[in-house]
Amino acid sequence: VDEDFFLVTSSFEYFPGVPIFHSRNLVNWTQIGHCLTRESQLPLAGAAISGGIYAPTIRYHQGRFYMVTTNHTHGGHFFVWTEDPAGEWSDPIWVKQSGIDPDLFWDDDGRVIFSCTSGRVGIDQSEIDIRTGETLTEPDCTWTGCGGKVPEAPHVYKINGRYYLMIAEGGTEYGHCVTIARGPSP
Length: 186
What we know:
The protein is mainly β.
């Protein structure tokens, strides 16, 4: 956002959740707070080691910061928002869709595309209502990657009129890589 960069990280079973960092040069980072600081935002009862919060993503759109993530132990996908990333974040807005590693993308026509790793071994996408989290279109498996196992962690970008879907695949071991698909629509 302008000269500022923001980064969020997984916090798994720890509270407060989702530390947020700020940088002006992508080298030096300072923690400015947490996105999830209230129990209403972060139910963790019974969360085992490596349970809780997985793979958050931060996005900025029209004056608001959005952090989307998965509470693997309680409730699934949700996002919170704020106008001040170092301040208080909203209560969760839940998205009823299965999977992990969610992403939000705002298209030029105002549609919000929700992407995530599906349980069907691919990347699911659907349109959601950003005010309520309601799914407006059925999740569709748009890509299964380039043949590596466990396609995951989708991020959608639009550059010079083309859409790009960047994912990780290959699992969290040897062979792990980043691949990108592109097309005329999300």
